[in-house]
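Shipment paperwork, digital attachment
Item: protein structure file
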Amino acid sequence: MGSVELTTLPAEVQLPSGNSQFADVDWFKQALNSNERLENFHMDAFFSTMAINYDIQLDNVGVREWTIIDRVGLNALRETDLGICSSVLVPYSRGYYPRCSGLRWVDCNRVFGFAWIEGCHWILYELSLKDEVIRVYFAEEVSWMEVKCFFDNVRSNLKKFIQWDNNSDIRDPSTEREWEVVRSTCFVGGPDGIQSGVMALKFLECLIYNLPLAIVDPACCASYRYSFCAQLFANCIRKV
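Attachment content:
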């Protein structure tokens, strides 16, 4: 994998996440540094780029059957007040947010998102709307009990919200089935979770392209970082 020539980057490029954020050379240096963990703004930008690039590659053939939810949506799902939860989630379920989504939950089988847990680890989660399961992909260094507790409110709110949203026919609102949190494939997060964000992103890339997770190699994290940055930069250039 060839390196990204940072000296050729402009002072700033606008990120494709639809929130008018910009990335400069230091932004890319941090993303490429194998000794630093990816921050919220990195994850949001790379996440959005994956969704946009996937749509471009469809070339009007086939249908994307998954969408994404960002940290604002996740925080709403963990909210104890159903009113607050629902008011935030409605535009997400209707496909208005995140800006790069564009798909209603009712038209999808899966909703992917990332979460920050235990103060140092990124995890990937999948809301399987058809079978009412939350699948979680996380670092082997993370406690499974901590992960399950993290999603406690998410489980109950998903059931209540989908029943509350009268315009949603994701599932029969009369069902009493509870959402289940399922432990899926673990990855290596590295010391202090430094590589957890990179590994979670690579897992997502494999899942959306139906590739086996076994091909993800923690020894290749530096190459994965370059790949994500190159895709993001190419997308920024394309949007100019």
